[in-house]
Amino acid sequence: MENINWFPGHMKKTRDLLRDNLKLVDVVIEILDSRIPISSKNPEIDKIIDGKAKVVVLNKLDLSDPAKTEQWKKYFKNNGSRAIFLDSIKGVGIDALISECRLAASEKMSQLASRGRNERAIRVMIVGIPNVGKSSLINKLSGKKSAKVGNRPGVTRGKQWVKLKGDLEMLDTPGILWPKFEDQSVALNLAFTGAIKDEVLDSETVALRLIEKLSLIEPEKLKTRFALEELGETPLETMDAIGKKRGCIISKSEIDYERVAGIILHEFRSAKIGRITLETPDDLQKVEKD
């Protein structure tokens, strides 16, 4: 796969919007994908918020590996980070997030009170790359369908203030990516999870690389889901075997790779292959060394 550079004009505008409106909020909520906590973190966010109180949310808890999630919980706790793990669809972790936001803003609220300012709602901003569940989170926090939600990156547009329960107000911003992927494994992880639109990349190549990744970290789940006795000697052989199992045949023995790729990517993203986390804290240590 050729190197991926990703910085459309609307994402630059979003970055500028985030920076311009930062002064309006008390707490920044940075939402990550719990399957790829490293790859789904925008390295520009910390630079932009510049010391503003922050709460980290690791979403899609229902899709990630429970054992590896525990590793990430321990990592964030040991590093003193405010981190909440949640499933924004079912609402798991929502109450904890609200409490954490209030705690993060307590110093700011005390300062306002000491100046004789009237009590007001705590203002929060949610930031993160596309397709990590921002709109679903806002809907769950507000108790109503207040944001347009879709399963495609980039559905949320513009700026909106949303009143939340617990005397919170949230400023939502579209997802933003960074100008260049220094590490192509990051680009692949974003492609695997759908943060980068399938139309932008060759889905067959992405699926092949996903097979390669899963063959290393979750071979049994891959074999079980697609009823394979053994994986192929190469990712392509495994892809061929999956195609035959699922009847993705064009003519005679020719595989319909586009159809197979769609099946593999869909079943990974929906956790039908299993609850899989692609990154662990050990991977973060490798990144820091590099």
3D structure, described in words:
There is one protein chain. The chain is elongated, with a radius of gyration of 21 Å. The longest helix has 15 residues, at 203-217. The protein contains twelve helices and six strands. It folds into two domains: 9-172, P-loop containing nucleotide triphosphate hydrolases (Rossmann fold); 202-289, Conserved Hypothetical Protein Ylqf, Chain: A, domain 2. It is of the alpha/beta class. A six-stranded mixed beta sheet has the order 3-2-1-4-6-5, sandwiched between helices. The chain is 43% helix and 11% strand.
Structural class: alpha/beta
Report the order of strands and helices.
HEHEHEHHEHEEHHHHHH
Helix content: 40-55%
| CATH topological fold name of the largest domain | Rossmann fold
Give the percentage of residues in beta strands: 5-15%
- Tally of extended strands? 6
Q: Count structural domains.
A: 2
Low-pLDDT segments = 149-157
Major sheet: 6 strands, mixed
User: How many separate helices?
Assistant: 12
CATH superfamily of the largest domain: P-loop containing nucleotide triphosphate hydrolases
Strand order of the largest sheet: 3-2-1-4-6-5
Shape: elongated
Rg: 21 Å
Mean pLDDT: 85
